[in-house]
Structures are given as structure tokens and as C-alpha cells.
């Protein structure tokens, strides 16, 4: 790395690909398969499973900001974020396997096991994800370089999505040999080894930028209350965090309902091995297009366009009722492009809110804002999972039944399509009117911050 300019080599950028690949393998397993595993393999009541998801996200209200403050207050020769990625790799592996294991316990025992293991993996993922995003902000101060790093990272995330969704159920069937419980356990062991190895090896190659003397003093003197007050005064971050909560709720309902929808509404559960890989493959393509397009289109405008693309895909699915599989796959492709643009843009835009907040309050809150964004997105996913569980339980869903009631099928349809479509359209409207950190504004902020910046202390890190 060029320490003075914060420019990374291709190898260092590929390390972010590996880190995000590892993170997203674990995230995809939890997002797309945990609810299905709890209800149809561990045989937990859907309402109870949804409650586990929701209560875990309420705990995140404490856990996520705590993790952010912990990172912001860290002073180590390894940096602020790197140590936590290294320290949490092994616990992440262990809890991932425990989450997809089913001991021969009573009904109550299985509920407790699933709740504890799910909270455990979620806490590990909190530290790894927040540390990954904070590390992205701390290896370079250059906006263009950060966008490039975001592309490399999200390409890894997209590849993980393709690999996980394409390989998960085939691995379950292959390794379980007809025993779903054993198959999920062995599948999780395979993916856990991949996650841990990538987090450790890739993080070890990266270095954070050297710190200024002022940064070291502020990190030592800044109190937790100062960090929280600075975050609350950052109106642009508050707006963005609210959108992440809404978006996460929609995504939680969509992703959690996908397996149910394919199995019961369409009667084609085998499509799960094709549908999500198509979406993820198009995410990969979209991520390669984001940077050149963003040079000509304002990030804010591109963000709005991406939300409307996703809403359009859901509108087509609503009209066709997914009666034509080629059209369904085409809409998965469009959703993949939409998700690619959003995933790449979100992190640089959050980093812009960091700079805005630093100029406004004089306090750096990298870890706290990243944890706040992570919490809002996860809280939304928890709310979405809770709503999905309530929808299923309240409309007569019966796990592993040959068919479901019309009411249950309609509830799954609402969760899979309607809520997601409405949410994306509303986010586009709110973004249009409320977000003000365009290129011109950020140029002014960067100039003012540069005028205030002291000289870095060579070779030292916070």
C-alpha cells in the first residue's frame, strides 16, 4: 500500500474480495436457509422461529453500537478494525456449525439451542461485518479508491452468494444421504472452514493507514457519549440508516420466504439451485458496471434508479404471477443488477456521511456509524423474519405439508413480492427528497477537512 495516498495494490484489493466472500457465505446461509432449517428440519413452530429472529435483532440494538464503540476505542499496532476480524474468525466458524446442527433434544431444548446458536453467530457476524466495513474506510481516504475497494468487496460477496445458493442444498443432499439434519450439519462444516480461512488469511495481508497524533489523542480522550451525540447529530446518516431499516425489513421477508414460495406456491423447490445463482451472477456483472456508470451519473441518482429497477422486477412478477419461468429468471436477473448497484453504492455513501459528520461535529465515528448501519439493516431483517413467521403461523402454515391453505399461500406471496415492491418504490422517493450529499457537496466537505488535517505520524497506526 502507498501509505501516503492510501492506494492499494491489486493483491490488497483482492483481500477485500476474500473477506467479503467469507462474510457473505455465512450471511447467505443465515438469510436464505436459517428460517427454513428451524421450521422444517429442527421442527420449531414458525411463530417461535420468527420470534427468535426478532428478539435477536432487538439484542442487536445493544450489541451493534457496542461493537462500533469497541472498534472506535481500539488502539493497537494492528489497527482498529483488523484485530477484531482476526479474533472473531474461529468463533464464527464454531457458531455457524452449531446454528445448522440439530441435537436430539426436547421441543423446548431445540428452541433454546436454536436461539442461543443463532444469537451467537449473529454476534460474531456483527464484529466481522462491522470490522470489514470499518477497515474499508481506514485503508484509504481517497473517494475513488474507496469506490474501487467497494466493488472488489462486493464482487466477493456476489460470488459467495452464487456459490452458497448453488451448492447449499446439493451439499445437504449429497452429504446427508437422505438425512436433512445430518446434511445441513456437514454442509455448515464445509462452509465454516472456508469462512474462517478467508477471514484470517486475507485480513493478515492488509494494513490500516498511519494515524495522526491528533487522531491518537482523540481516540483516547473521546468518550462514548461524544461518539453517540455525534452520530445523532448526523442527519444524513440518520436518514440513510432509516432507509436501511426499511430495506432490511423488505429483504428479510423476501429472502426468508423464497424457499417457501418456490416449494409451495410454485411447486418447484429445485428452482432454488437456479434462481438465486442467476440473481447473484447478475449482481457480479452489475458490480463491474457500477464504477464506470457512477463516473457519469451521480451516486444518489444511480441509487434511486437501482431501487426503481427492483420495484419494476417485482411489479412484473406481480402481474405475471410467475407463471412463466423464463420471465421469472429474467426478473431475478434485473433484481441482481439492482442489488449490485445498491450494494456497491451503500458503503461509499455511508463513508460520505462519516465525513459530513466529522466536519459537523469534529468527532470521528467510523466504527459507530458502520455498526449503526449494520444494526439498522439487521434489525430490518429481524423485523422481516418476525413478520414472516407471524404471517405463516397466522394463516395456517403447516411445515412439510403436501400442500398449504390458500391463506398461507397468499401470505407467502405477500412476503415474497408485494412488500418488497412497495418498499423499494418508497425508498426511491425518500432518497430523492432527503439525501443531499452529492458530488459538489462532498467536494466542499473534503476540501474543508483537508485544510484541517494535521500531518500523519509515519509508520504508526491507531
In CATH, what is the class?
Answer: Mainly Alpha
Give the ordered list of helices and strands: HHHHHHHHHHHHHHHH
The portion of residues forming beta strands comes to under 5%
Number of helices: 16
What's the CATH topology name? Answer: Growth Hormone, Chain: A
What does the overall shape look like? globular
- CATH H-level superfamily: MFS general substrate transporter like domains
Radius of gyration: 22 Å
How many E-type strands?
Answer: 0
How widely separated are the two ends? Answer: 17 Å
Number of domains: 1
| Helical amount | over 70%
Give the helix/strand class: mainly alpha
The largest pleated sheet is described as:
none
CATH architecture, by name, is Up-down Bundle
Q: Which regions contain 5 or more consecutive residues with pLDDT less than 50?
A: 455-462
Mean pLDDT score: 85
Amino acid at each position: 500500500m502507498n501509505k501516503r495516498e492510501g492506494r492499494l495494490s491489486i493483491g490488497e484489493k483482492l483481500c477485500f474480495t476474500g473477506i467479503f466472500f467469507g462474510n457473505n457465505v455465512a450471511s447467505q446461509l443465515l438469510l436464505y436457509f436459517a428460517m427454513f432449517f428451524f421450521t422444517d428440519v429442527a421442527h420449531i413452530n414458525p411463530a417461535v422461529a420468527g420470534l427468535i429472529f426478532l428478539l435477536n435483532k432487538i439484542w442487536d440494538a445493544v450489541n451493534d453500537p457496542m461493537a462500533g464503540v469497541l472498534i472506535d476505542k481500539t488502539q493497537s499496532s494492528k489497527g482498529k478494525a483488523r484485530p477484531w476480524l482476526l479474533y472473531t474468525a474461529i468463533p464464527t466458524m464454531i457458531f455457524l456449525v452449531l446454528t445448522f446442527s440439530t441435537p436430539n433434544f426436547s421441543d423446548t431444548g431445540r428452541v433454546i439451542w436454536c436461539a442461543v446458536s443463532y444469537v451467537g453467530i449473529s454476534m460474531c457476524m456483527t464484529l466481522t461485518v462491522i470490522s470489514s466495513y470499518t477497515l474499508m474506510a481506514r485503508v484509504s481516504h481517497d473517494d475513488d479508491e474507496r469506490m474501487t475497494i467497494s466493488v472488489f468487496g462486493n464482487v466477493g460477496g456476489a460470488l459467495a452468494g452464487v456459490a452458497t445458493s448453488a451448492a447449499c442444498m446439493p451439499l445437504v443432499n449429497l452429504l446427508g444421504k437422505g438425512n436433512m439434519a445430518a446434511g445441513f450439519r456437514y454442509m455448515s462444516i464445509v462452509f465454516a472452514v472456508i469462512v474462517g480461512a478467508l477471514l484470517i488469511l486475507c485480513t493478515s495481508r492488509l494494513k490500516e493507514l498511519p494515524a495522526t497524533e491528533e487522531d491518537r489523542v482523540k481516540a483516547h480522550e473521546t468518550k462514548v457519549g461524544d461518539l453517540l451525540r455525534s452520530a445523532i447529530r448526523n442527519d444524513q446518516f440518520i436518514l440513510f440508516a432509516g432507509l436501511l431499516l426499511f430495506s432490511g425489513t423488505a429483504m428479510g421477508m423476501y429472502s426468508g420466504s423464497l424457499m417457501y414460495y418456490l416449494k409451495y406456491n410454485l411447486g418447484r423447490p429445485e428452482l432454488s439451485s437456479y434462481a438465486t445463482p442467476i440473481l447473484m451472477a447478475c449482481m457480479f456483472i452489475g458490480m463491474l458496471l457500477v464504477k464506470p456508470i457512477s463516473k457519469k451519473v451521480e451516486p444518489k441518482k444511480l441509487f434511486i434508479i437501482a431501487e426503481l429497477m427492483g420495484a419494476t422486477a417485482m411489479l412484473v412478477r406481480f402481474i405475471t404471477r410467475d407463471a412463466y419461468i423464463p420471465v421469472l429468471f429474467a426478473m431475478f436477473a434485473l433484481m441482481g443488477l439492482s442489488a449490485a448497484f445498491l450494494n456497491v453504492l451503500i458503503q461509499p455513501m455511508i463513508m460520505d456521511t462519516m465525513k459530513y459528520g466529522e466536519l459537523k461535529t469534529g468527532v470521528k465515528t467510523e466504527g459507530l456509524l458502520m455498526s449503526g448501519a449494520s444494526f439498522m439493516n439487521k434489525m430490518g431483517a429481524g423485523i422481516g423474519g418476525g413478520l414472516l413467521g407471524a404471517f405463516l403461523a397466522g394463516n395456517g402454515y403447516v411445515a412439510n405439508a403436501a400442500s398449504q391453505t390458500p391463506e398461507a399461500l397468499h401470505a407467502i406471496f405477500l412476503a415474497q413480492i408485494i412488500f418488497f415492491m412497495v418498499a423499494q418504490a418508497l425508498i426511491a422517493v425518500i432518497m430523492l427528497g432527503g439525501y443531499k450529499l452529492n458530488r459538489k457537496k462532498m467536494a466542499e466537505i473534503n476540501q474543508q477537512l483537508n485544510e484541517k488535517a494535521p500531518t500523519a505520524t509515519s509508520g504508526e497506526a491507531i
